[in-house]
Write a structure and sequence with these properties.
single chain, Rossmann fold, flat
């Protein structure tokens, strides 16, 4: 809840609203919800299947 909001804010301040921000790691559920409210596209926690992450990225990132 320190670095990611700063990154998202910095992207917005520089007009980069179209950058897909995805994070992962041991992130409490409440923090994950807040990160999404702040503009993070998805939060993947430990144990997330690689296929789930790949599918998410394929849906969100134009080829």
């Amino acid at each position: 809840m320190t670095l990611v909001p700063r990154v998202v804010d910095g992207l917005r301040e520089n007009g980069l609203d179209d950058v897909l921000v995805v994070v992962g790691g041991t992130i409490p559920g409440e923090d994950a919800r807040e990160l999404k409210e702040r503009g993070v596209a998805e939060v993947f926690t430990p144990g997330a299947a690689t296929g789930e992450i790949v599918e998410f990225l394929r849906e969100k990132v134009p080829a």
